[in-house]
């Protein structure tokens, strides 16, 4: 008998928390790197800020896994939210001296991010199942697109209108208020059951085990992270460098997020598990192709082509990658019991990829900062999703066979 996927009250509450967190990040995070750039025009400095974040995220996932599994994961989630607010409070405090605080601020932002998303991913696994996970992910993408439309556009207009640091200080303050609201909302989420003892070395054990599917999933996630680590901060920064206008960056994000809203909605509604493998390959190839116009010129127009193309094709690649990874955590009672350790393994794999991509970016730009160098580097790093599909396709084929034989 076929059942219709649906989301219960706890899933909806978790979506609300996620939506607000993404809204706060959209308001301030989009312009954080621009704020750094205006203090000192140095790509490598922003690269090191990203490295600090990713190191802290990975270590927080690994160390925080014990807290989340054996104690109160909801408190870990709340502490992550609170520290995000503290981060923006410190940014307001240090002001133009932020370039001297790149490492401590990057580490703090990474710790807050790690605690929140570790807890969120575990709770997400517990409130969803194989039937409604694609639906939940589709809604996550949809909310991310809506907040991506509202947040950066509003922030860009506000910064342009107020001029100077006043606009930045106001949006950072608004983000702190949103984080406070998230803490309040989190208390309506049920306290989750504690698990058994936390196994510190489980990620290594999984990678050493010959029969573990994570020997394919982990390198696929590393490949995904290579692109994410650089593109996450570079695209918005390039838009600002090309236009010198925060309002243009807000407009860019509004357009691309509006398109993402539609594509994530369609993907959540129609993208079924049996289509994951061919969909991922098509998505990965097209994500690379839309970078090619930058070979002609790095302008607002060519960056917009990249942004629109990424908005259209990213759901094809990303939703199967996310859902397949979490499906591996529910294949047996043993994997369900080890869900925290597997979430840690997932994030550590992404962290390795993000760090690898960022280190390559920093190393190349220390040799040459020419625009064409950056474009060629984007083409190389942007091909990594294809590598991710190569690793994960066997898992997707096995999933399709299992669905077909039901």
TrEMBL record:
**One example GO MF annotation:** transmembrane transporter activity
Q: Which CDD domains match?
A: MFS
SUPFAM superfamilies given in the database record: MFS general substrate transporter
Q: Which UniProt keywords apply?
A: Membrane, Transmembrane, Transmembrane helix
Task: Give the Gene3D superfamilies listed for this entry.
Answer: MFS general substrate transporter like domains
Could you state one GO cellular component term attached to this entry?
Answer: plasma membrane
* Keyword presence, Transmembrane: yes
Where does the UniProt annotation locate this protein?
Cell membrane
Q: Which residues cross the membrane?
A: 12-37, 43-64, 76-95, 101-124, 136-162, 168-189, 216-243, 249-267, 279-296, 302-319, 348-368, 374-392
Topology term for the membrane: Multi-pass membrane protein
Name the Pfam families on file.
Answer: MFS_1 (PF07690)
Q: Which domain of life is it from?
A: Bacteria
Name recorded for this polypeptide = MFS transporter
